[in-house]
Amino acid sequence: MTTGRLRVLSGIQPTAGSFHLGNYLGAVREWVALQETHDAFYMVVDLHAITIPQDPAELRASTRLAAAQLLGAGVDPARCTLFVQSHVPEHTQLAWVMNCLTRFGEASRMTQFKDKAAKQGAEGTSVGLFTYPVLQAADILLYHANQVPVGEDQRQHVELTRDVGQRFNSLYGETLTLPDAYIPKAAAKIYDLQDPSAKMSKSATSDKGVVWLMDEPKVSAKKFRSAVTDAGTEVRYDPEAKPGVSNLLTVYSALTGISVGEIEEKFTGQLYGPLKVEVAELFADWVAPFRARVNEFLDDSAQLDAILAEGAAKDWLPLLMVDGHDLDPTMGSVVYAAFAAAMAIGRFSGGFVIDRLGRAGTVRASAVSGAAGLALVIFADHPVLAGAAVFFWGLGAALGFPIALSAAGDSGPNATARVSLVAMIGYIAFLVGPPSLGFLGDHYGLRSAMIAVLVFVAAAAFLAPAVGRRPARAGAEHRAGAGRLEETA
Predict the structure, then answer these.
(1) Which of 189, 202, 222, 266 is catalytic?
(2) What is the CATH number of the domain that holds 250?
(3) How many CA atoms lie within 13 A of 150 on its CB side?
């Protein structure tokens, strides 16, 4: 994250299992672009998904699949914060506060609730669906987001967020950042291939017109070939008179970056069939590497768990600097940027350090650096000194988990089980850690709560021999060792 960037937050539901083409071209692709220019927070909103009945096992699987698809599409945890909504308990805590500040009339005027309630009927509509926009407001306000990428149909929810946030600030002081809706002008709006008057949607009555990104290639190709077109034979962009053909042209343009006018010219004198075939082929070429990346993350559960756990935990540092050292939120983000930069430097130089100190020596040095930096953050009263110490904390935090995974993989028979155990321990720590810190922070303050973390970091220095020494090697073996560390990290 970079100093001075606006913070953006957005989320996507995991309920459909696979994303569809409209999700990617209309939203996820914009997320990938925004992480280069904004301080980006992206989440899989599993709490929003349970406003309708869900099978718990299926929801857990869909949540992991949604996260893997975001990563496969180019969302990069090194450039943004990616997490699962339910892994951060403060979402529901703040949602209750926001519920108590939201007027019944405000919530009842939300048009999305009216539409969904009309479809589900009074008996099938939950209170959770009614207060869905209030939880959404808590999601946004919790992270001091400046902008929220939404479709036009969600603008009303952002306006409610501003109203409730302003009400909180009026009562309790200027605490919450009031966000603006960010509606991308260049986002492609993709329509159902069988009903080009309706947006492509996971809730469509039939999925024959919905192109799921995780569909088998032959299935999606058939959907494109059977797409509804229009009267006449001219390939021309005219959403009013030719919505079906216009939809295919939009998909073609969005996947290739070629203007619609150039595509029209290319198909001059041709019938609709060649356009359908070429769009199907373009999609197949684009989606194949996407599917491969998604499956890599699903197959490597340890890496996926580590990414999501780290994303759920990483906003504690700005809170610590704001609440514990009286920095403003912008400077808190600057300090976090220093922490992230230190971790990146630590991981980039990891192979070099391990070759010289060995695994145990590196873990011991990391623990000393991390403990020294964290101790200054906790006990130093000068905010500049505490902020500078964060760099040493970040260096110390960079290599512990990757080295533990690497050591487990090199530990002889049944290495797979050992790697899984290390991954599970790390996941539990990241999952239990944030709410535990929240509990301690509420009772003793965040700086005091971090003493518990300091104890565990210091303990790593004494446990370092458990990862083995791994003697330094020369030449190609040096490079191979560094490469394995980088892959694991």
Answers:
(1) 202
(2) 1.10.240.10
(3) 20
